[in-house]
Amino acid sequence: MTPTALLGAYRMMALIRRFEEAVEDAFSRGFVVGTAHFCIGQEASAVGAVSALAPDDLVTSNHRGHGHFLAKGADPRRLMAELFGKATGYAGGRGGSQHVADFAIGFLGSHGITAGTIPVATGAALSQKLLDTGRVVLAFFGDGATGQGAFHEAVNIGAAWELPIVYLCENNLYAMSTSVEESFRVASVADRACAYGIPGVRCDGNDVEAVNRTVAEAAERARSGGGPTLVEAITYRQCGHSRSDECLYRTDDEEARWLERDPIRRLAAKLVERRSSSASMARWPTWSPRPCASRRSPPTPTRTLSPTVSSPSSTSSGSACLAPEEDAPCPSAPTARCTTARPRARRKRLREHGRELPRQRHAPGHRPRRQRVVGQHLTREHRRRALLLHARAAQRGEQQR
């Protein structure tokens, strides 16, 4: 990868990390209900694989698909709006975290069922071959999906028909709480490729260049009519399987070892070594990758506004958010205003658009409980409930008279 491509990959990985941390914080504060599966620590596999494709190639994802979607070119604002249940989201606020898609950018969708999108990706590859479009399909899935029948059936038919598809397994060593050593007798997922008569390649999933190089070769082979390739990217999620996972099945030493191999910190160190960063790199905040949130305090943002990185030696404890130009703003760098002015600006926007709830009068000495407004559809729901309660109170008053 060129220095420019590496810098773009770093910025995309930083965007995915900040997005996932923001979503985790929103869930922990109760702003978003339900559950979500974060890809913190797996950014290199998503960015490296998608950057190796052509712009019109197709991608399918799994339940941990925020990073795949953003790497394919999704708008983080629309994706966040979908998580908050807003009508401006990709699915109109009805899909949530695990069911988003955008055919315009070639993202065929994510799925909450394990291995549910692998047959979909295989069918999409069949359509590309029949239509002779020259496009390749990239199917993301985890190591837990390789134990499902849908995986074996899809890979077998993809190999038999020599479809233009790349099967990418993000092996983060755990299927929920079950390790790969306890699940399979083979040492590697890529070793199973020989049973289907296709190549199987294993790469470092925390090295964006290694993933990009491996997927680029597999995509070129598929595009030229050579058939599918099974790629296994060894990575590690720095959080639980979902936000309710306490990670009691992992040790602190294991998490500490993988934190040292954090993909963003490794890429930042590589950029500094190649002198591809700008002179203003020290202005931006450092990364502080956190281990699993279980057995510790509740999840809190791990951002710091103190610019401390100025040399490659200091990158071992944190990495700077790099900017390509001297005065170019960093898109992932938080500002000191964002944590204090956001609620005030939100209330101001609600008043300007006439979406603020009307103030209700209460008896003297009564302190009403504040209602948190999240999304436009919840505002309408609150109004409907208020009108309904007012009508019922009026009916009771007339009956008492």
Task: Describe the 3D structure.
It is a single chain. The protein has 401 residues and is of the alpha/beta class. The protein is 38% helix and 8% strand. The strands form two sheets. The protein has a six-stranded parallel sheet with strand order 2-1-3-4-8-7, sandwiched between helices. α1 (3-28) packs antiparallel against α10 (263-273) and α5 packs parallel to α6 (149-160). The longest helix has 26 residues, at 3-28.
Short summary:
Helices cover 38% and strands 8% of the residues.
N- to C-terminal distance: 81 Å
In percent, how helical is the residue content?
25-40%
Instruction: State the order of secondary-structure elements, H for helix, E for strand.
Output: HHEHHEHEHEEEHEHEHHHH
In terms of DSSP E residues, the strand content is 5-15%
Report the structural category: alpha/beta
| Overall morphology | globular
Low-confidence stretches: 279-287, 289-342, 357-363, 368-378
- Count of individual helical segments: 12
Mean pLDDT rating: 79
- How are strands sequenced across the largest beta sheet? 2-1-3-4-8-7
Q: What profile does the largest beta sheet have?
A: 6 strands, parallel
Q: What is the β-strand count?
A: 8
Radius of gyration over all CA atoms, rounded: 24 Å
